[in-house]
Design a protein that fits this description.
It contains 11 helices and 3 strands, in the order αααααααβααββαα. The protein is mainly alpha-helical. Among the domains are: about 1-75, no CATH class; about 90-160, Winged helix-like DNA-binding domain superfamily/Winged helix DNA-binding domain (Arc Repressor Mutant, subunit A, Orthogonal Bundle); about 170-210. Strands 1-3-2 form a 3-stranded antiparallel beta sheet.
């Protein structure tokens, strides 16, 4: 299998298997190959191999084990600070260490100024920096966006690196804090869910009551309409007769009044 096409895990597994029979200069060569191998960015398992540990006991070869450890846990600034006691690294190693340094910065800060990246990666200009960032994104080491106007890198995700044993208590503390926050969030969600269920229940009860009232009103209106259609209404002729009979007494009263005035006039 080609190292360029293999996954990080399978590449590391190959080096771990090869390390079992490597001693002395062969183990040093294996370390160099691992540090230059494309797509290999974790080295913890290789450091734990017995042959690599034995190599560290030899003062002549110990610097290479220290270099492997630096690639597992360190950054470019760590290499620069200890350059005088570490082996010289190839251009491929330099690029890989810069990629790993970006990952370490991305794990600590979600918005990284270009100025900080240039300093930490020991790079001369922004153009080369952006090319390096693009390579890290395509390699799947980070998910990020370059903001050229603001001259910063906005990070959304960073791969996990090897963790030193001495850092495990700190990591466990962070995980415990995260677990506590998750439990608090879960309690809040459960309380909101209970409140939503209660409101829904009250809403459904009100809706049912309203629906019942609407049905009752419709029934009442239907009964009233049916009773009105079943009632007897007076005919038109009867209404005309009633009107005429109501007007007759008024006219007779008027005549009586006029006649009495006439009689009174004649008597006088």
């Amino acid at each position: 299998m080609s190292l360029e096409k293999a996954s990080s895990g399978s590449i590391l597994e190959q080096f771990v298997l090869l390390s079992s029979g490597a001693r002395g200069a062969a183990a040093v060569s294996l370390i160099k190959q691992a540090l230059e191998a494309p797509n290999l960015y974790v080295f913890g398992e290789l450091l734990d191999c017995s042959s690599i540990k034995q190599l560290g006991e030899n003062s002549e070869h110990r610097p290479y084990v220290d270099l492997l450890r630096l690639f597992a846990y360190g950054t470019c600034s760590d290499y620069i600070a200890n350059r005088n006691v570490l082996p010289e690294i190839s251009p491929q190693m330099v690029k890989k260490l810069r990629h790993l340094s970006i990952v370490s910065l991305a794990a600590k800060c979600k918005q990284i100024p270009y100025s900080l990246l240039l300093k930490e990666l020991d790079m001369p200009n922004v153009r080369e920096l952006e090319d390096l960032i693009i390579e890290a994104i395509y390699a799947g080491l980070i998910k990020a966006r370059m903001d050229q106007n603001e001259q910063k890198l906005e990070v959304y995700y960073a791969m996990g690196r090897d963790v030193e044993m001495s850092k495990l208590p700190e990591l466990l503390g962070i995980l415990e804090q995260w677990t506590g926050k998750c439990e608090e969030s879960l309690s809040d969600i459960q309380a909101q869910l209970l409140d939503a269920q209660q409101k829904k229940s009250a809403h459904m009860k009100l809706k049912n009551q309203t629906d019942t009232e609407i049905i009752n009103i419709k029934k009442t209106l239907a009964l009233a309409s049916g009773a009105e259609r079943a009632g007897i209404r007076p005919s038109t002729e009867t209404m005309d007769t009633d009107v005429k009979s109501a007007k007759k007494p008024a006219k007779m009263k008027g005549l009586r009044g006029s006649a009495s005035k006439v009689f009174k006039g004649s008597n006088s």
